[in-house]
Amino acid sequence: MDRVGVLLLNLGGPDKLEDVGPFLYNLFSDPEIIRLPFSWLQKPLAWLIASRRTQKSQENYKQIGGGSPLRRITEAQGEALKEQLQALGQEANIYVGMRYWHPYTEEAIAQLTQDNIEHLVILPLYPQFSISTSGSSFRLLDKLWQEDPKLQRIEYKVIPSWYKQPSYLQAMAELIAQELDQFPNPDSVHVFFSAHGVPKNYVEEAGDPYQQEIEECTALIMQTLNRPNEHTLAYQSRVGPVEWLQPYTDDALEELGAKGVKDLVVVPISFVSEHIETLQEIDIEYREVAEESGIENFRRVPAPNTHPLFIRALADLVLDALKSPSLKLSQVYQMKKKVRIYPPERWEWGITTSAEVWNGRIAMLGFIALVIELITGRGLLHMIGIL
Ligand SMILES: C=CC1=C(C)c2cc3[nH]c(cc4nc(cc5[nH]c(cc1n2)c(C)c5CCC(=O)O)C(CCC(=O)O)=C4C)c(C)c3C=C
Ligand SMILES: [Fe+2]
């Protein structure tokens, strides 16, 4: 029988407080997380941002027991998926490949090569596609495939996103219904979807389909829930000075409080496991914002974790993928990311994004030349012997 493997992709999280700094450095070193015009700036800037953020981030991890539960939960999902596949007649080895912490994607690939896997299903544990999550992992895998001839022997299938999968929608609806039914008057509770945000320019300039997939997913979950509750969608976890997708979760909670909403359930929508952004950000920070805004009864729907319907959804995705035609990782990436490559490399005349990017690059070079002149006392043209 052919050897089948499933590679579960996720972001990864620090296992203990000392891991927070290096984890953040890995995260900010990724050009899919911070998009810069010059690749040589990436590592110094990653070091700077990670150093400035480590203490605050460590405080947050302290509040949830000193580390991320992401690895433990992802491994439990993998075990449950293996059993579910077995029950459906499909033997498979499951591998976990994290993007920014252990077990790294590279470690998973080394293991599955050693196990002589012949057919591989690549399944990101993000229901919706974003350049910053599944996209980043696909790019890394594409690079590993190009570098290692041994990997060419593996026939792989990629699942780009799966937010429409019926058992996933049912699992979400069931989890929401269970939470609503804790209230004396379930139908009047406000259902508040909170998705992880991304910078607005990912969607508007780089062609990230994330916002559209999040919006569709929210509508499908409400349809599956089939209850009369009002609902809101907002975006959490903003980092840095640029504008992110709006409305922001804290602003939207304040607005609902001001409108007189008293009962509210938060549904984390872009995550399938508990982690810092559910356990700390929603359960502690946003709960406080909600209560200060007058929302009296604040509950959160648990992430799907190892909910049987959710595991069934993952198994069905794997079985369907094994039967589907193969697409290259780079094709999947380009198919999802519909618009041009950012920053635009082709010059365009007029007040265009491309012209702004190139003006920025030229200005940056001018600034570097000025700094060199200030430090050395000699101009760049003198130094290279032109003047
Ligand atoms: C769909 C999920 C996620 C998207 C989209 C996403 C984009 C994104 N994230 C950052 C910055 C940070 N993310 C951090 C942790 C983190 N993010 C996700 C998910 C998405 N990120 C997960 C699952 C985790 C791991 C959490 C854990 O349990 O450890 C962090 C570190 C935590 C912190 O310091 O707050 C940062 C920073 C950006 C900039 C971005 C899009 C560009
Ligand atoms: Fe994040």
TrEMBL record:
Enzymatic reactions: heme b + 2 H(+) = protoporphyrin IX + Fe(2+); Fe-coproporphyrin III + 2 H(+) = coproporphyrin III + Fe(2+)
The entry's keywords: Cytoplasm, Heme biosynthesis, Iron, Lyase, Metal-binding, Porphyrin biosynthesis
EC number: 4.98.1.1
Binding residue positions for Fe(2+): 196, 277
Source domain of life: Bacteria
GO BP: heme biosynthetic process
Top EC class for this record: lyase
Location of the protein in the cell: Cytoplasm
HAMAP family, per database record: Ferrochelatase
Function: Catalyzes the ferrous insertion into protoporphyrin IX.
Protein's name according to its UniProt entry: Ferrochelatase
Gene that encodes the chain: hemH
